[in-house]
Structures are given as C-alpha cells and as structure tokens.
Design goal:
The protein is mostly helical. The protein is 74% helix and 0% strand. Keywords: Membrane, Transmembrane, Transmembrane helix.
C-alpha cells in the first residue's frame, strides 16, 4: 500500500512539474526532485529514468549529493518570487499581500544560502 502511495505521489509531482514548465509561477525542478524521492521508494526503474533525464537528472543528482542549486536556478526562483510579490502588491489588499512577501523573503533567503553546483 505504501509503495502505491509513493508511486501516485511521484506521478502527481511529475504532473505538477510538467505544468510548471509552462507556467512561470510554478516551479519545475523541485517537483522533479520530489518525484525522484517518491520513485526511489516505489519504482527504481522510474527513478533511474529521472536521474538519466537530460534536463532534470543533473539537478536531482546535485541536490541529492550536496543540496546544491545552480546559480541559474537560484536566479530563476528569485525572479519568480519577485513576480509573485509584484502581483500580490498589485492585486491583493492589505494585509493579505504581506503573505507572499514574507514567503518570498523566507524562501528566497533559504534558496540563496544553498551551495551552488
């Protein structure tokens, strides 16, 4: 039963990551890392496919080995945070726009402190 839940979560993560490839506010690589985590516990064959993927494999391996995020990935994440904050400032009333601002500050600080691959 547990294996099936991990398998389902892995496919859901792949789906969200795929959507994120087309929507700028939804991250792609974190969902692929999550799906690799889930597939490691449910399907070694699917995990190997992700690790061998031309685009996502290097990011997943860097994260697993050193917890590293590339400088390009950091810049992309911070740009997405900035875009989200700008949208919140434009469309959300006070105090609701503070939620994405705080999330961006916390998440952005954490991302920037990760080692680079």
């Amino acid at each position: 039963m547990r294996r099936h839940l991990y398998l389902i979560a892995g496919f859901l993560s792949i789906g969200l990551g795929t959507i994120g490839a087309f929507l700028p506010l939804l991250p792609t690589v974190p969902f692929m890392i999550l799906s690799a985590f889930c597939f490691a516990r449910s399907s070694p064959r699917l995990e190997a496919k992700l690790l061998d993927h031309r685009h996502f494999g290097p990011h997943i391996r860097r994260w697993r080995e050193r917890g590293a995020i590339s400088r390009r990935g950091k810049k992309a994440a911070l740009a997405a945070f900035a875009f989200s904050v700008a949208l919140a400032l434009i469309f959300s009333p006070f105090p609701w726009f503070l939620i994405p601002v705080v999330a961006a500050l916390i998440g952005g600080s954490w991302i920037w402190t990760r080692p680079e691959g």
